[in-house]
Amino acid sequence: MHIDPLEKKWLYVALGMVVLFLGSIFLSLALGIKPPSNVETIDSARLHLSEEFAEDNLGVHIQPDGSIKVIMVAGRYGFFPRHITIPADTPITFRWASIDVLHGVHMPMTNMSTMVVPGYVSEVTTTFPKPGDYPMLCNEYCGLGHDYMWSKVTVVAKQTWEREHASKGGES
User: Fold this and answer.
1) CATH class of residue range 41-167
2) I need a surface site. Which of 70, 74, 153, 158 has the fewest CB within 10 A?
């Protein structure tokens, strides 16, 4: 039985792809890599009535264990609140909900990026290594005002953050 050399090459390529595909599956299982499982639903039409995403509850919250949670809402055409201040070198958990359509959250020069899907709560935990001002932009087209959909995150040194919040009695 004779196999043309060109057919042999393509056979090797196809077998290599199968081995690569199966190897990636086994590797992801061995390392415990899974898709996000934090599937939390919410009624977007009644979002403003929810306890967590009520207008007066948006912003930065210091949790009893000392961790920091930021609650934000995405809606045409902005992220609310428009400006937040958080500490550097601290794990920050962002929680978003959309009041209308699909939005995307992207912060250039960081690893922060996620989609905010109506009816679901999006959650991302990240750390900002250095102080500075970071824009928060929408990276999913959401309508005519999409270009103006932004918010600003100011990251301050951890010592500055702790000093300011110690003087406020731990309030956020």
Assistant:
1) mainly beta
2) 158
Q: What angle do CA 71, 86, 65 make, to 5 degrees?
A: 70
Q: For residue 169, what are its two tokens?
A: 């009695």
Domain boundaries, the chain: 1-34, 41-167
Sign of the torsion formed by the C-alpha atoms of 63, 82, 78 and 139: negative
**The tokens 């990026």 sit on which residue?**
113
106 Cβ contact partners less than 8 Å away, ≥ 6 residues apart: 112, 113, 136, 137, 138, 139
pLDDT value at 68 more than 70: yes
pLDDT in tens, 115-161: 999 999 999 999 999 999 999 999 999 888 888 888 999 999 999 98
Dihedrals φ, ψ of 63, to 5°? -80, 160
48 or 94: whose pLDDT is higher? 94
φ/ψ (deg, to 5) at 106: -140, 135
